[in-house]
Amino acid sequence: MTAVTPSAWQTEPFPDSPQGWIDRAAEVAAVLSTDAAARDKAGATPYAEVRLLKESGLVTLLGPAEHGGGGQSWPTAYRVVREISKADGSVGQLLGYHYLWNWAARLVGTREQWEHVEAEAARNRWFFGGAVNPRDNDVVVTEDGEELVFTGRKSFSTGSKVSDVTVLEGVLEGTQTHIFAIVPSNSAGLTFHDDWDNIGQRLTESGSVTLDGVRTPWSSAAGFVDKVFQPRVYNTLNVPTIQLVFVNLYLGIAAGALETAAAYTRTKSRSWLHGGYDNAVDEPYVIDAYGDLTAKLWAAEALADRIAEEGERLHGDPDAVTEATRGEFEVRTAAAKAVATEVSLEITGRIFEVTGARATTSTEGLDRFWRNVRTHTLHDPVAYKRREVGRFVLTGEIPEPTWYS
């Protein structure tokens, strides 16, 4: 990775406004963009990239200001994820997931737990990873006195080796109860495997992880009091909050693709020899394509921002969240996910129409945008997101909270 000189960030105070943090993210993105294609090709563990996120303060964005955090809200976090993703989708995903795992303590934990986690995370600039895939009961949690023991294997573990702490998830033996706990990433028995070899999001450290008797105190089990979970409707906001991270990841990658393609068209594309124009930027079909794709992107971004603000009203008063307000937020988020998926795939695929054959060289690396979007948009079928919206429109039905709805 290009050498980073973070001295300016270390001597300057944190931004004091949402726009200030978005501007800070743009500064980080400018550094990442200088060698994004080369780093994608190398596929090396992104230690330097995560260090950049820490030195810039972006990892503390959601943390309490009194403990050294940015004191910002989810709408700002989404915009920051989008900004970083313009330059590097992998780093955008790492940061977005970091925000999610950091917030997980507030999502399901007791007040004492989440206040402790958020304070420590902000003070120490922890970077979070997560070994969480509740679709499969692949990790069993057993009791050993006042300790919990996690044993099993997870197929995915985004963040893995570059994280300071990892959120674990497993099912308590003999029950259907899922337990979440935060442990140091260097905990005994926690082994991350270098087996993430997908076509896109190559630097996300999303390989499998083995849990061979990883121990943590019962007191670290998020949301449990005297070994009994204390449920709230707010606990079910995990899916729409996660999905909005995905939405902004996709839109950021799409915006990056469009910006990179436009720069190529302006400086390198040649006009068609039979078109009658001296410059590619003057060709009507090129102008039309950029106008079409930009209009679609702007519309999708506006929808994402609007829904983020709607969600923040729920985050602002967790105890007031009802099944109805949660359900409507999930439906709105599902609509944004469907639109963002379609728009990002279209943009990252069509940019080659307006850049030309020479833009397909591996040196340019324009294919990384499509590979990144195509890989992550398969996380969960978008058809089921459209189904949530359709059922709500036709029957008023809101989605039942699951790990994916």
Automatic annotation (TrEMBL):
Residue stretches making up the Acyl-CoA dehydrogenase/oxidase N-terminal domain: 29-116
Organism the protein comes from: Streptosporangium saharense
PANTHER family reported in the protein's UniProt record: ACYL-COA DEHYDROGENASE (PTHR43884), ISOVALERYL-COA DEHYDROGENASE, MITOCHONDRIAL-RELATED (PTHR43884:SF12)
GO biological process, one term: L-leucine catabolic process
Keyword annotations: Flavoprotein, Oxidoreductase
UniProt xrefs under InterPro entries: Acyl-CoA_DH_C, Acyl-CoA_Oxase/DH_mid-dom_sf, AcylCo_DH-like_C, AcylCoA_DH/ox_N, AcylCoA_DH/ox_N_sf, AcylCoA_DH/oxidase_NM_dom_sf
UniProt protein name: Alkylation response protein AidB-like acyl-CoA dehydrogenase
Residues in coiled coil: none
Presence of keyword Magnesium: no
GO terms, molecular function: 3-methylbutanoyl-CoA dehydrogenase activity; flavin adenine dinucleotide binding
Residues annotated as domain Acyl-CoA dehydrogenase C-terminal: 245-379
